[in-house]
Amino acid sequence: MVQEKQFQPNSGWMMLFVLIVMFFVAIAGLITGIAFEAPVIILLAVLLIPVVVVLCIGFLAVAPNDARVLLLFGEYRGSIRETGFFWVNPFFSKKKISMRVRNFETGATSTAEVRGDAGQVVQAATRSSGRPSKVNDRDGNPIEISAVVVWRVVDTAEAMFEVDDYEDFVAVQSEAALRSLASRHPYDSEDAEISLRGSTIEISDQLQQDIQERLDKAGVEVVEARISHLAYAQEIAAAMLQRQQAAAIVAARTQIVEGAVGMVQSALDRIASEGIIELDEERRASMVSNLLVVLCGNSHAQPIVNTGSLYN
Fold first, then answer.
1. Which residue from 142, 181, 219, 252 puts its CA 20 to 30 A from 164's CA?
2. Cα three-residue angle 227-231-236, rounded to 5 degrees
3. What percent of the chain has a predicted confidence (pLDDT) above 70?
C-alpha cells in the first residue's frame, strides 16, 4: 500500500527570477555573438533558450484545499499540500487532487465534461438527482431508500494509486453500504428495537461507520452520512398506510379506555366515600357500563331522563 509523503518544493518566485535572468542573458549572448561573429557564443545562447523553456514547465500553483501528487517516470515522489507558487523538477508528472469537502446523493449519475479539439468545453459536467434504491428491509418489505454522503480526501497517495477512480469508488461503495444497512433493520418497530424510520441518529451513525470501513483503503474520510429518502415501495405503500392507521387507532383507543376506566373508578370511589347513594352490584355494573359507553363512544351521548323509580 502506498502511503502519502510530503514533498518540499522550491520557491517559484526565486526560480522565476533566475529564469528571467537566464533568458535575457541568452538574448544578450545571441546579439553579442552575431555582432562579433562568435559562433561559440551564438551556439551557447541558442542552447540556453530551450533550457529556459523546459525549466518553465516546472512551475505550479497550489490553491487552498488542493494538492499535487508528483511522479517521476512512474515513481511516486511525494505530495504537495502547501498553498503557493512553486517550482519542481520539470520532468515531474503533477496530478491534481481536490481536498475540498464534497457531497453526493446515492443513486445519482454524473457525466464528465467533454472538450473539443481546440480544448474548449463542448459539454459541461452534469450530475442527475439521486434516485432512491429499492431494497428489502429485514422483514422482507420492499422499501425505497437513499442517503446523502459528505466526504473528502485525506490521503492523496491512496486516493491516486490504491483505486482506479476514487470518486466512482466512493459512489459505488456508499450505495452498497446503504443497501446492506437497510437489509439489517426493519422499516418500523413498535418496541425499542432500532428501525430505519424511528432510530434516525443510530441509523446515520451506523451508515457512516459502514461507509468509512469500505473507503479506508481509498484514503477518503466520511464526514457525515444521513438518510435523505425513506418510504415503502409503491406496491405495498397503500397496505402499509392502512396498517399504520390501524395501529394508530388501536393505540388511541387503548389510551381512551385506560383513561375511562380510571375516571369510572374515581367516580365510584367518591360516591361510596361520600355516601351519596348506595348501589348494589347490579346497579353498580349498570353505572359502569353507562359511563364507559359515554366516555368511550365516538359520538356524543344522548341523555335519557328516567321519570320512574330507580329500578323501573
1. 181
2. 155
3. 82
